[in-house]
Amino acid sequence: MEVAVSAVLDPDDFPRSYSAGRVWKLACFWRGSKPSRKPVLWLEAFPIAAGIPGSRRRQFLPKMLHEGQRGGQEPMSLLELRGVGYRAGETTILEDIDLTINAGEWVTIAGPSGSGKSTLVRIIASLLSRTSGELNFAGKSIDTYDPIAYRRRVSYSLQQPTLFGETVRDNLSFPYQIRQLPFDEQRAVAALDYVGLVASDLDKAVIDLSGGQRQRVALLRNVMIYPEALILDEVTAGLDAENKAFVWSMIRHFNSDDGITIIAITHDQSEIDAATRLVTLTDGRITGGTR
Q1: Range(s) of the chain covered by CATH 3.40.50.300
Q2: What is the pLDDT of residues 148-164, one digit of tens each?
Q3: Which fold has domain 103-129+142-288?
Q4: Which residues contact 69 (CB under 8 A, 6 or more apart)?
């Protein structure tokens, strides 16, 4: 299994108030080997990371392979839209959209309600067919990809988390089932630990999860096998401040440490202000942030 290692920390780095046991467990998961004197973990994949001095962090390669990636250099341009439009009957929803998104970028999409934001990302996610223009992914027209294979590489997360089946396990095992792969329960348990849940929650009924927990599980389902791009349609809407901060810390980890391209719709002004690249839509046209 390919692994991505972001840092190696000496146990003495950890605040005394934290449990070393959880650190060892995470080391086993990411490295796939027995714990050593200096356990390996993701800096943002564990709550104690924020307290680790930057001078004690040491970066390592390689990164984990993503769905569809087979090593080597990724194309700089991951998504290219040229003159993309969408009409519903006589109504124009999107018109003449030109947009390039590079691999590993975080693009925030903002604009008034009804400006076409959700329509745009649903087209990128292959959940809706454009009525004009060209859309390329990794240098090839989206029309040349098998839709199911494409949606494994470009994953879409809804505003309201949609969980199915009866348990958390049903959701986290789904990405493996559709690929006819054995469920990696160890990875699932480590992922739950990362988001503040425990191993026994694998068999917890989804109806017993809080709103914040449901969103965390929905996001984990999207990254049990990493996509190359993750589309987020207002995923923090309706969450309280604590859960919102936690979800965005997860997404920052996916982007900065794992190299997943993030395309995020938001109305939240604090998220807009923090955007590294902001694309603005007005009346179905891009009015800022294109290139």
Answers
A1: 103-129+142-288
A2: 899 989 999 877 778 98
A3: Rossmann fold (3.40.50)
A4: 228
